[in-house]
Design a protein that fits this description.
By secondary structure, the chain is of the alpha+beta class. The strands form 2 sheets. Strands 1-2-5 form a 3-stranded antiparallel β-sheet. A two-stranded antiparallel ribbon has the order 3-4. Strand 3 and strand 4 form a beta hairpin. The longest helix is centred in the middle third of the chain and has 20 residues. The two termini are 22 Å apart.
């Protein structure tokens, strides 16, 4: 996978930053780049909602993990409460991204 370096100047990259990077890299107008990002995110969210796994080679994979219910405690009162079972999306980092994140950046 060829990574393109995007000069980011904040603490956390958000959707607007991704749209801007896509627009700058591809030459797409901001509006079109926003449509592309919405399509990608919606497609991924729909796949996860259907119980499918999303894998992006070199980047990582997303899947939905089932967590059983359990007995917990209300931290304020200390009373026991029942925590319901739930499903949550999880991300597993791909090898290439892991290596890239661990490599010192050249200034």
């Amino acid at each position: 996978m060829n990574f393109i370096y995007y000069e980011f100047k904040g603490e956390a990259m958000n959707k607007s930053d991704l749209i801007e990077a896509l627009s700058n890299d591809t030459g797409l107008p901001i509006g079109k780049a926003e449509e592309v990002m919405k399509t990608v995110f919606n497609t991924m969210a729909n796949a996860l909602a259907n119980g499918d796994r999303v894998e992006i080679r070199g980047f990582g994979s997303f899947k939905v993990k089932h967590y059983d219910g359990y007995a917990g405690r209300n931290p304020k009162t200390g009373k026991p409460i029942k925590i319901k079972a739930k499903k949550l999306p999880v991300f597993k980092c791909g090898r290439e991204l892991k290596e890239r994140a661990d490599t010192p950046r050249k200034e």
